[in-house]
Amino acid sequence: MAAQKEPALSVDPEMAVFLPNGGKSEHMLVNISEKRLAVKVRCSDNSLFRVNPVYMFIEPGSCSNLVITRLPGPPKSDKLVFHYFSCESNDSEPKEVFKINSQRSPEMLKLPINIISAEDVPKVKLTKQ
């Protein structure tokens, strides 16, 4: 049995959590490889979710911020999938890397999305200072 290859991309936090009325979740994508990565973010429901940026380059050992916005809607099972390819330093547009490699399967990393009810949100006690 072949050893599973370590992914070149990591995401922190490893899950996005939203209320049914929507909100934002910020994540950091980290390139833990020694090669430059072109990344494309795909979502299971583009009518409920917006991501920024959709395409990006991440240099070796570097990170990039990602903001996920969920619009109000019913709770359901969703996910984001990060597709990525190793690329060259002279590649200038991440979208073009995906067009050039359209016949190849990209590496993938999944980010689960969890919708919680307001009752599941921890209560924060405010104190006067």
From TrEMBL:
Residue ranges occupied by any MSP domain in the UniProt entry: 8-116
Gene3D superfamilies the record matches: Immunoglobulins
Keywords: Cytoplasm, Cytoskeleton
UniProt cross-references to InterPro entries, sorted A to Z: Ig-like_fold, MSP_dom, PapD-like_sf, Sperm-specific_class_P
Classification via PROSITE patterns: MSP
UniProt cross-references to Pfam families, sorted A to Z: Motile_Sperm
Function field: Central component in molecular interactions underlying sperm crawling. Forms an extensive filament system that extends from sperm villipoda, along the leading edge of the pseudopod.
Alphabetized PANTHER family for the sequence: MAJOR SPERM PROTEIN
Stated name of the protein: Major sperm protein
